[in-house]
Design a protein that fits this description.
With about 270 residues, the chain is mostly helical. About 85% of the residues lie in helices and about 5% in strands. It has 6 helices and 2 strands; from the N terminus they run H-H-H-E-E-H-H-H. Strands 1-2 form a two-stranded antiparallel sheet.
Length: about 270
């Protein structure tokens, strides 16, 4: 029974390695071909055919070199080794182009959003200044009305022979009438300024809500949020961070695919023994 399980394990594991090798290689080939086709957009279909055939040839050459390393002609072995390394570099360039183009699309959306927020922020500041200016105007009008109201209540002394002092306190009807007229004018001014302030306040609120909606755009913020956090944490520009990340990916991606192809060949050889 133990021997049976060992035989199943011995025969099944190479297929797992092969499946992993093919999945990584297929992913690398897809990203590489897509990236190269964008790089040479003028002949994208032709580039897809060429790059696809080179990707298949690369895996076959890697298997061939492993299987026949000791028996193959030395010059041919050197050429195939160099060709494989160059193909890995070409594939890595395609992957880099594909991923960097995807990042640029997302970064462009972020730039557009930032420009929109900057424009709306200028509008918001303009209306905030208008609201503050109208508030000062309303305060001035209220102070004028309070002053005029106090003037209405102020009394004056007039001669009165019937009074023991010869004078009596009274209110000037002329001053009273003029004060009331000025109060009416100031009330009209206050209503006019208040109406203008309400219009400006509505515009200010509209721009504040638009800014809030753009800042809470979860799609773009979710895609670039980690990179922005790393950029703020390290002080390194976001473009450099994404460049380092892409270099790490391409240095692992295609070399891993080649290594897994070689490992699959090794595993099958061991399964046969």
């Amino acid at each position: 029974m133990q021997n049976f399980l060992n035989n199943i394990k011995k025969g099944f594991f190479p297929f797992i390695i092969t499946f992993s090798a093919l999945s990584v290689s297929a992913s690398a080939a897809f990203y590489s071909v897509s990236g190269l086709s964008k790089l040479f957009a003028g002949a994208s279909f032709e580039v897809i055919i060429m790059a696809g055939s080179l990707e298949v040839a690369k895996l076959i050459v890697a298997s061939l070199l492993y299987q026949y390393w000791d028996t193959i002609n030395k010059l041919l072995r050197i050429y195939l080794t160099v060709a494989t390394v160059i193909l890995v570099i070409i594939t890595s360039m395609g992957i880099y182009g594909f991923l960097s183009a995807a990042y640029q699309d997302t970064y462009r959306q972020l730039t557009i959003k930032d420009n929109q927020i900057r424009f709306l922020d200028q509008k918001r500041e303009f209306y905030e200044k208008d609201v503050a200016r109208y508030d000062l105007e309303l305060e001035r009008i209220s102070n004028n009305i309070a002053t005029l109201s106090n003037a209405k209540a102020s009394s004056i002394q007039v001669r009165d022979t019937a009074s023991s002092t010869g004078f009596r306190q009274t209110i000037s009807t002329t001053e009273l009438r003029l004060s009331q007229q000025r109060i009416n004018v100031e009330e009209e001014n206050r209503q006019s300024v208040q109406a203008k302030r309400e219009q400006v306040a509505d515009s200010l609120q509209k721009y504040q809500l638009e800014i809030l909606e753009l800042e809470n755009n979860s799609e773009v913020a979710g895609e670039l949020g980690p990179l922005q956090y790393l950029s703020e944490l390290t002080g390194v520009p976001m473009n450099k961070i994404i460049n380092y990340l892409l270099l790490v990916i391409i240095f692992v991606f295609d070399p891993l695919a080649i290594s897994l192809v070689v490992a699959a060949n090794f595993a099958f050889n061991q399964a046969v023994i």
